From TrEMBL:
InterPro entries: Isoprenoid_synthase_dom_sf, Squ/phyt_synthse
Family matches, as SUPFAM superfamilies: Terpenoid synthases
GO MF terms held by the record: transferase activity, transferring alkyl or aryl (other than methyl) groups
Protein name: Phytoene synthase
Domain of life: Bacteria
Lineage: Bacteria, Pseudomonadati, Pseudomonadota, Alphaproteobacteria, Hyphomicrobiales
Biological source species: Ahrensia marina
Length: 276
């Protein structure tokens, strides 16, 4: 099985998405890899900059590329080239990329997440849309019902944010909505200045429960999709093991990053793929 440059790149920047892409038919892997590689580029912007303005400039560049405003520049970047080819071939909506990048501006600042509705909306625009577009890539049309992608994006996004909670907290970012902080009796400032991990146990438990709820709803909706679209959701296979680890560790995850090994991720993704 030959690997294209964009698949090789995805393997280096997001191994879990790479593994999930390998379960797709060979003619769809490159397009899926382009989508997830674009997501990885957006994900890492905050890690690459020390101030918001350079981050906004980088994010705007990707926004312009994805919405067709910088085609020549975009095609000079390996991820941009693959993304533009995928958008053109599968008629992916430019407005979805525009909304994704607009929502991602939040990542560049240290404003706290206002509330649960805002949190779910943020994950919908930044994660759910990727599952929706991947389903469109697999069959040529987006699912008629957006419930599968909607809930999948929130579940997957929560799993990702749980893993990075410690890193976000160290640099003053709060992705946890106020309602879930209040379960532990914490304000935004108190969460950032925590010195006792157990003080965040209730919040971590509530966030994990929210992720599980959306995962269950996603899986119910996925079951109603045509079989050829279900493979768009293989990445959900990592959610349950992450939720289990987060629940077991409780507030410790606000102090120390955690994850699952590549081998473990591959095992769970393989098992999940066979169930879809």
């Amino acid at each position: 099985m030959s690997k294209t440059p964009i698949l090789n790149h995805l393997r280096d920047v997001d191994r879990e998405a790479y593994i999930a892409s390998l379960f797709l038919s060979e003619d769809k892997r490159e397009a899926a890899a382009a989508l997830w590689a674009f997501n990885a580029e957006i994900n890492r912007i905050r890690d690459l900059v020390s101030e918001a303005l350079p981050g906004e400039i980088r994010l705007q560049w990707w926004r312009d590329v994805a919405t067709g405003l910088r085609p020549e520049e975009g095609r000079q970047h390996p991820v941009g080239e693959a993304l533009l080819s995928t958008i053109e071939q599968y008629n992916l909506p430019g407005h979805a990329f525009d909304a994704l990048c607009e929502a991602r501006i939040f990542d560049l600042y240290n404003d706290p997440m206002p509330g649960l509705a805002d949190f779910e909306g943020y994950l919908g625009e930044t994660r759910s849309v990727l599952f929706q577009m991947l389903a469109q890539i697999l069959t040529g049309q987006a699912p008629e019902n957006g419930d599968a992608a909607g809930h999948a994006g929130i579940a997957y996004g929560i799993a990702q944010l749980l893993r990075r909670m410690a890193q976000h907290r160290v640099r003053g970012q709060i992705f946890v909505p106020k309602e879930l902080l209040q379960i532990s009796g914490l304000s935004d400032a108190q969460f950032l200045s925590l010195d006792d991990p157990s003080s965040a146990n209730g919040t971590v438990s509530a966030l994990t429960a929210l992720g599980r709820d959306h995962l269950q709803k996603a899986e119910t909706a996925i079951g109603a999709l045509p079989k050829e679209q279900r493979s768009a959701f293989i990445l959900l296979g990592i959610c349950q093991p992450i939720f289990k680890r987060a629940e077991k560790r409780g507030g410790d995850i606000a102090f120390e990053p955690f994850g699952i090994s590549p081998f473990t991720a591959q095992w769970y993704l393989t098992r999940y793929a066979t169930k879809l």
